[in-house]
Amino acid sequence: MNNSRNDLVNSKISRIIDSNILTSWFWEKYFRKYAAILIVGIVFMTLEGGMLGLLSYSIKAMFDDVFVPSNKAALLSVGLIIFAIFLLRALSGLIQRLIVTWVSQKVEKALQESLLEKLINLDMDFFNKVSPGVLIERMRVDTRAVTGTAGTIFITLVRDGVSLLSLVAVALYVDWTWTVIAFIGAPLLIVPVFFLQSWIRKTSSENRTIEGNLSLSLDEIFHGIAIIKLYSIEAYRLGLFKVLLEKVRKIKLKIEGGIATTPALIDFIAGVGFLGVMIFGGGQIVAGEKTIGDFMAFFTAMALIFEPMRRLSNVAGNFQVMLASAEKVFRFFHVNNSINRQKLELGDSHVINFSGEILFEKVSFEVDDKLILDKVNFSVSPGELVAFVGKSGAGKTTILRLLAGLIAPTSGRILIDGKDISTIPVNRLRANMSIVIQENQLFDESIYENVRIGKLGASESEIEHACLSAFVNEFADDLPEKLFTKVGPRGNKLSGGQRQRINIARAFIRNTPIFLLDEPTAALDAKSEKLVQKAFNESIIGRTTLMISHRIANIINAQKVIVMDNGVIVEQGTHAELMEKKGLYADLSKLQMLGG
Description:
The chain has 596 residues and is of the alpha/beta class.
């Protein structure tokens, strides 16, 4: 499942970030600003929790002052007191839940916004290592787990903590010896609960990794559905997905079992303690040392104690589950760009006009110890059209990606106007380039909006002119809403050639001094290719253009042709000069001619 792609963020489970660092970081960045309203929430949680203690104590009055002496006069007043307790508990519970939900949703929104802002500004090296499925899992599932679980834990700690204290206070007030007997086995829980929490966090972290792989599997299935159907591997891919689902099921069962173990132990200890109270306290009631009201108040307090104790016992487990998600999100926020860009010296920024010379000086690039480019040297003069040719994997596309700042050289320098591009702000660098790549990525918007992406401030006439230049109107005019027709997810409502023409129009509208073209007409039919090639020939006049193409007709007029093989430049010259050499270029040209 390409797990190695995610090593950047899914490091070994043993390298768990300290919980204090995680909680402090999330509190300072996202929760602290809502401290005032959370204090209001605490007040209402305290009211809700305290009502349980008051309710249990009112039971004593109900028995000793009403039922046992058959006092009808006190019946209504005691009843109204109990009704008031329930009413106050209901209102305070509603208000505190609304407050916590509001804060949780605000934090979730802020967390997702800032996480996307962080991710979207990372360089391509990060996205080459981390799958889209994992990113979606972190963005949607883990952020929600952090905020949602934090809200639940907060309510439980305050409300149920107050409930527990008030009920214990009532129990102690009725009889401290009964209370000691009831809780005599509690210290036995400390050791098993401590080890349980450590195990739960480790297991939860493993679960988040597997959940990420599950999202990756779905991402690959839906993105590659055409290949899956063409090769009839539906059952195969479904089988792989089922294996992951089974792993998730088993590990979730372990986590839930671990979380449920603590309240089960509490119930067992509480049962033993209550048995002791029945034996010891029952004798006191029979002997007339205690009233029935005392026993019922104590019994009610102990019965009501069980639920807040169970919820509080789950807090530690839920906290560990939350930390597992928090850790995954936290790691993303602390990923740095692999491309280290220096700042331009003061006054240098205006010197770069992007119409000067492009120079590659001994540029090498490698990935996982595999050399893609090996000390490449070449120059491009202002306004020159330079074509790159070579077999697949020769390193041509890497040249364009390096120049656009998508990746950084392992060694060597790339200069524009004599300035190393690593010192040029990446937004300014790309703002001066129009790029057409092989992957004709469109968004699920209209044709008009997809073209406007090239220049967000473009006027309607500029967009229409770009569409005419790229011959988009040739097919758009036949669509129901013409240029305002939605193209579907990744442009799936259009043909490959139609999608590419939209990409070309997007490049035209930028009107930049540098054009980078990676097989710009590869997806077009013969007629469209001739039309678009004509448009390109007109658009690149006076612009510095680097073009990759396997079609000799597209590069025959280039001022320079650079021939690459296995990451090195083996030939340079014009089409005519290289044909005379009868080297690799001549061989590639013959293959193209044979192909028509």
